[in-house]
Amino acid sequence: MTFVLSADAGICLASTLDADPMAGLCGVLMLLVPGLYVTFFHGPALVVAHVAICLVAVVVVLTPVALGPDADPALTVAKGATAVMVLVVIPTMTHIGLWLLRADAAASLVDPLTGLLNRRGFTTQMSRLMVASQGTVSDHLAVVVYDLDNFKRVNDTYGHDAGDLVLRRATQCVDQQLPLSAIHARLGGEEFAVAAARPPTEVRALAEAVRLAVQMSDGHTPVTASVGVTSTPISGIDSTDLEVRVIEWLRDADRAMYRSKRSGGNAVGVDG
Fold first, then answer.
1. Residue 190 catalytic?
2. Which is the catalytic residue, given 190, 191, 243, 248?
């Protein structure tokens, strides 16, 4: 921010002190350089401040052309419109476009029903979790997969609106039991995943906390979950093949979850 304001101030000062208004206007156009920096790397507040500075600079530089002894209103309008297009319109529209692209990219990682990450978002956030957890006492990664038991019966008995409510309520209850650094995602349908840095001795406890959270969320529609969990050391994992490793961890936890489901559900299975 300091760099941008200093650059704007320096360019404006040099341009407005030029005896030749046209040369000064050429100097003002150099505001495009910090403008592009602001557009790509800063938020709307600084973009607005920079645009305001640009407008003031253009007005100050072109005032002698519009009101001086050799006033030329047509030239003033033409040059002013060009400067505004270059310094204001193009950076502003570019910033809005980038903001929309970023918002769309963020939305593509989120499940619209529950507000959790989707499978793609889960994989994307795993690298953040791995980096944050290295060197801590929680030197293992726990990956939990849970699936709501007999969920089709819930939809058939109470309707899909009630089923959606059950999904939201269950995942909210699970969220409340997870550490802040944990990753929680909807893999599809009524199947969900959790990843958290946990020492091996606490892996089963994390899975049990997930199971109990779902069970306690029953409200008017009783629901339970079959849970599977796997654990792996964090150290030595290469980020280049992280996506493949995530698929393997989910597969291992999923296999443990299905053992729980085959045993009657509402239980925890541990891989290995």
1. yes
2. 190
